[in-house]
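Hey L., structure's done. Input below.
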Amino acid sequence: MDRRTALTVLAGAAAATAGCGFVEPEPTGGGEETPPPPAEDPDRQVADSVPASRRFSPAATADSGLTLEALGWHGHDRVRYAPDDGDGFKFYEPPEGWVLAYDFALSNRGEEPLDAVTDYEFVLRVDGAEYDHRHALGDVSLSQVNQPDGEAEIRRLTWYSELDPGERKRLQLVFEASKAPDAAHYLVWYHGGQIEGADAPAYLLPEG
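Output:
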């Protein structure tokens, strides 16, 4: 089953199964509409073979009014966690690559409430390879992660049930991926409808 077929199957149950928890709505600060895709050379390829016409930074909007904004990412060679026995801290080190947390926001720019989309609409793309997000790091639950003060936060997966018009929710997905800090790290959106006037996927990068 390919990703698009799988998402079609999941879509009907998205509100009930989209994630492992819920977050309270964040008020939106408004802002301007997402600019249209680049008008010149729409089929020009960027270095990692992502079509320029499907690359957006930092946001893209689906025909439903749902907007995805890529906020940023941070990578870690090892992650500190509190073991179940409560005996101090231990460290998880991925067998290859590193642990990468991607922060993003979903907002409703439409006029009607939107049910939750499944978290599996979003994948990470680095150097041409795509990675699904993790609910755990090996045998370590994300709820056990306890990063030292001053280090970027890695959070357990939380999701939402509905987005009212104007609502915005900030979320994070965690991946294990190849370590390529200088490569483009795309948050890829395999939405069920069109995004910015064309079929999915769309490839998003943080601003800057």
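The longest strand covers residues 66-76. The CA atoms of residues 66 and 108 lie 5 Å apart.

-- N.
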